[in-house]
Amino acid sequence: MQQEILINWSPQEARVAVLENGAIQELHVERALERGLVSNVYLGKVVRVLPGMQSAFIDIGLERAAFLHVADATSPTAKTTNGNVLPIEKQVFEGQALMVQVVKEPIGTKGARLSTQVSIAGRLLVFLPQDNHIGVSQKIPTGQREELKSRLQKLAGEQGGGFILRTNGEDASDTELGEDIAYLRKAWARIKAAALRLPPPSLLHQDLSLMQRVLRDMVSESTQAIRVDSREQFEALTAFGAEFMPMAAGKLQHYKGERPIFDLYSIDEEIAKALGRRVDLKSGGYLIVDQTEALTTVDVNTGGFVGARNFDDTIFKTNLEAAQAIARQLRLRNLGGIIIVDFIDMVREDHRQAVLAEFKKQLARDRVKTMAGGFSQLGLVEMTRKRTRESLAHMLCEPCPMCEGKGMVKTPRSVAYDIFREILREARQFNPREFRVVASPKVIELFLDEESQHLAGLSEFIGKPVSLQSEAAMGQEQYDIILI
Fold first, then answer.
1. Peptide bond into 201 cis (omega under 30)
2. Pairing state of beta strands 125-128 and 120-121?
3. Which of 10, 207, 437, 476 is the most buried if burial means most Cβ atoms within 10 Å?
4. Phi first, then psi: what are they for 261, rounded to 5°?
């Protein structure tokens, strides 16, 4: 697998596309005015403690108070003698200044989720200043973990704090690990000093920018090149990479082409497709992706695909292709939470197992943690994908003001009948000289044509004239009834 990373930068927005074998797999967007909060460390103020929910709300200077659950507030010392966790009301109190770290972005109507267990990520290690645990990434083979753990234990010394070795630190030398430990300890010292100096709520530590995180987190051995279309950012990333990530810095290239870098690889076209419900498959089948507040559903359809010799093979091949496409769409759209996949029903058990195996194989390539079960009795595959930030659609779009996010509006006839009922209600309560209906052109046109007899009958029944006024600026469901 060959990977390329494209960085498109402008003063207001940075966009990063991850391509594998020429096809876009991930898109990351960071806007200057909407920079992500995950991993930021704040000195917050406890504004409310809820014993019934075993949680607290913390003011960290955002529009909405952030959320701290007892499971994320518990330190090794916050336990009773018999090992039980102390309740939240015994750990924090209203008005208390508390150092917290964001572990999940504010999403929709939910505030950011917090933890009191601070962790600081470096190039090779993650530092746990409030814990003495020494760990190794689970992606590193089991046979190497104990050796790496003992090396790390010696390098960490007796200064306190724990470390977790990241996957890219597997082959690091003792010198490189020592430099990362020194960098992380300095960062923690700066955070502690700021916490003593600043009043709550205050930002104590901000995570790296999106482009810096590309060098830290996204570059692997399969990465062929990191192309940046801004000379200023290329030079800044080169300097940052030379100090902290020399291997990644060597793959940086300054893109000097006349065409925008995303146009060259048709990235904007892929973004437009990723915002739509329908995803066409090469075979002629297609997916329908629906995202709701509670979960995301993916429906697989054969469409016009009739290429196989029999119907079972047609379904099997469509589902195999869909398994690959769904895993890619989850990454590209950054869909998280509960996801329900409705593959086309398969009669043969070996086909079902082959599709499930392919689906899990594709999910294993995802950097975000995923967990998928088998086929349910209804033939559905239930899975979860960790959600730490807004999906692509929620980041780039907003609900339609006409349908308010439903995706549908009432027909003109339904709106006309709503108006009839409203006029009857108002006629019983008030005694105006005339009723004037102000509505969209389509609704007014219906009143003048097909519903004209019903309108005349209503006017005769209430004994008042009903006049009509068309308003082009109104949505199809919007109307006003004016009493004159």
1. yes
2. antiparallel
3. 437
4. -60, -35
368's tokens: 């975000």
Among candidate residues 298, 362, 296, the one with its CA nearest the CA of residue 327: 362
Of 246, 1, 31, 155, whose CA–CA distance to 147 is shortest? 155
Query: CA-CA distances (angstroms) from residue 457 to 5, 433, 463?
Result: 68, 17, 10
Query: Contact 472/441 with Cβ under 8 angstroms?
Result: yes
Buried b (16+ CB within 10 A) or exposed e, 113-124: bbbbbbbbbbbb
Compute the residue count for the chain. 484
Summarised one tens digit per residue, pLDDT across range 239-256 is 988 877 788 889 999 999
CA distance 334 to 388: 9
Q: Which two tokens stand for residue 353?
A: 């197992």
DSSP string, 194-262: HHHHSPSSEEEE-PPPHHHHIIIII--TTEEEEEES-HHHHHHHHHHHHHH-HHHHTTEEE---SS-HH
List beta partners, residue 110.
107
- The whole-model pTM stands at 0.72
Query: How far apart, in whole angstroms, are the C-alpha atoms of residue 159 and residue 152?
Result: 13
Beta carbons of 265 and 293 less than 8 angstroms apart = no
List residues bridging with 280 in a β-sheet.
286
Count of H helices and E strands in the chain?
A: 15, 24
Distance of CA 211 to the CA centre of its chain: 18
Distance CA 99, CA 200 (A): 9
pLDDT, tens digit, for every residue of 241-298?
Answer: 887 778 888 999 999 988 899 998 899 998 888 888 999 998 888 999 998 888 999 9
